[in-house]
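A protein record in our archive is deliberately plain, so that people and models can read it alike. The tokens are whole numbers drawn from a learned vocabulary of local backbone shapes. For reference, a complete record is included directly beneath this paragraph.
>
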Amino acid sequence: MYPEGIEMKMISNLLDTLTLGSDEHRIGGTIRKIYFGIFYNTTFIVNLTFTLGGVSAYLGLLLSQDSLTTNKVLAPLGIGLLSAYFYNLIYIVNDIVDWQKDKKNSAAKFTGRHVLGKDYLYWLIGGYSLVLGILADLSEHRLFILFLTYALVLISLSLIHSYFYKTKIITIFLERWLKLCSPFLIYFFVTSSDIVPILASLMLIFPLSFDFDYSLRGYLKKLGLRMDLRYTTYGLYWLLVGGTCLISGIFVKDYSRILAYATIYFSIVALTHLMSRKLPFSFLHNRYKKEVALQKERLLTYGLLQVFVIILSIVYAAVH
């Protein structure tokens, strides 16, 4: 129950509006239909926060090196936004596969299907077709090919994840890897710029990335799988990525940029944990259990820090 104070009620109503509460009085029906027709679910905002976490650290690195330009800001930001948009295909496919099971179990989900009814697939197909059509005219079709390939990979992973129980820890690991690393992977193929050290650094720190281990532990617990499975997965992953970096000579050639990017990324994460305890998010504890409230505090703080870095980068690039 919420406190009866007027301030608490205002905050609760604002929070419900920002999280697109399901009651009709929370937000206009038209606005809600447009949102869910484009982004399918509210998880898009969370995924965008994680995806742009790597981008904001890259912008921070460029800021520290005084090498930031408008193109270097807009290109990774645009690709990051599109990557998060296409990442929603995982949820769309999973919900289609699990529709009957969720209906039978009365699973609580609030998605485009629930808001738009039977027409939701027309909205989604139209949206993705429009985006791919626009991309087909850019970068000599490279963006179109890359994002079409990305979409097919995500759909395939989602199908494997839904139908093969024993592969779930692998598929969830790969899906989260794509969420964080795909913007730089796509950026590399589009620009052919010297982004390899940044991608290598992000790949190496991925298992330690913001809240990844926390979410993976929760997922393993939900599935009833052993927690130590994640350590085995991390170890094998680091052997593969670290070995590849050593053999290719990236460590020797670009170790300074690899370390610099990792330092900035973890500095933002550390600052997130420190600031989340100081910012006025106490209302979350009146709404959620302690562990969930703390996680949401971190997530909100992480998002705010990214917004700050992105705005600072845009202003800096425009002025210089």
Q: What stands out?
A: The chain has 15 helices and no strands. The mean pLDDT is 84. The CA atoms of residues 221 and 227 lie 7 Å apart. The first helix runs from residue 6 to 18.
